[in-house]
Write a sequence for this structure.
């Protein structure tokens, strides 16, 4: 059952026939057909006609159940605070919010004494407003690892009017930036979300699936070019958050306790 579910995530498009799913799952057609029929009755799969199936509502319920048992917020916040101290910037944690279209939503932040007015927003606005995945290093760090069908849906939407002057307006350049992110493992942003602010972000993945991203923002005059030390700190934090999601606790200062 799980091999067939995973096959849906490996194939482009939302609906597939038993044959394509069998090849992706490395199972024989008859076995996949029986699994699909059983899954339809359980709500795991939905029959769309003409021999095609898509994932049903019971599939994301498994993911939501896993998120419900994710680490305590205090552990993730400690990692953000450690990142803020290490970089001297503002640190944010975003999670993918797929319902109603793919967005990113800020679920926590470590901003020290800042009230975020320099970004033209309040902490409440940052945490309650969903943001486009096509704008900002945090959004592109997530978008780079999503299926092409979701990427196309995101690119079909206009650039938000509140985006900064450095936001990618051209889809060709945006797609090229996603390829660079996949090659490097992190994203850099220059005045994409707010004028005068540059960014560095890395994806947070659980078992090969992108769940969100961690971001550091610093004033442009302080971080004209992102130093290696900031990139490495962001990547370490993203890795530690991924370990938390897999049930591997990090140390009290944000370091992976397994390395101590």
């Amino acid at each position: 059952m799980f091999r067939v579910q995973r096959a849906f995530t490996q194939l482009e498009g939302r609906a597939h026939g038993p044959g394509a799913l069998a090849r992706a799952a490395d199972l024989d057609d008859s076995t996949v057909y029986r699994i699909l029929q059983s899954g339809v009755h359980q709500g795991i799969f939905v029959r769309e006609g003409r021999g095609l199936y898509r994932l049903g509502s019971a599939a994301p319920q498994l993911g939501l159940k896993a998120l419900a048992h994710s680490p305590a917020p205090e552990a993730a916040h400690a990692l953000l605070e450690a990142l803020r101290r290490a970089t001297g910037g503002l640190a944010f944690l975003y999670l993918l919010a797929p319902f109603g279209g793919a967005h990113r939503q800020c679920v926590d932040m470590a901003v020290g004494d800042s009230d975020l007015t320099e970004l033209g927003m309040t902490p409440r606005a940052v945490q309650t407003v969903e943001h486009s995945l096509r704008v900002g290093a945090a959004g592109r760090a997530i978008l780079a690892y999503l299926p092409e069908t979701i990427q196309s849906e995101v690119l079909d939407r206009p650039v938000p009017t509140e985006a900064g002057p450095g936001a990618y307006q051209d889809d060709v350049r945006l797609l090229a930036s996603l390829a660079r992110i996949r090659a490097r493992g992190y994203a850099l942003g220059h005045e994409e979300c707010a004028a005068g602010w540059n960014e560095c972000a890395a994806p947070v993945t659980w078992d090969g699936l992108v769940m969100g991203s961690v971001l550091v923002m610093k004033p442009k005059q302080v971080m004209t070019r992102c130093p290696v030390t900031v990139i490495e700190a962001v990547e370490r934090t993203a890795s530690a958050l991924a370990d938390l999601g897999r049930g591997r606790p990090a140390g009290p200062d944000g370091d992976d306790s397994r390395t101590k």
About this structure: The chain has ten helices and eight strands. Confidence is low (pLDDT under 50) at residues 249-260. The first strand starts at residue 45 and ends at 49. The chain has two domains: 2-62, 71-259.
